[in-house]
Sequence to fold (88 residues):
Amino acid sequence: MHPRVVSSQYLLSGLSYCGKCGAAIVGCKAKLGKYLYYECDTHYKKGSDGCIGIRVGKDRLEGFVLDWIKQNILTEENLVDLIRLVNE
Fold:
């Protein structure tokens, strides 16, 4: 979904899903917005009866995803190939 459509402070909004039940992973706040995290939407709405999904800190999950992208997609070889394709 285009970023202009989804106005969110959560980078992975609309892009991640629970590995247990397949529901969307949604951004949540705790302690009056002091703590930000991601949680399975089913677990958020129905508790552990709906899904055993866990909460993951926003910075921790987003950092993991960004590091994975840097190491596996934004490699020097891939960037060189991309530049070559653009120049062609």
Summary: The longest strand covers residues 25-30.
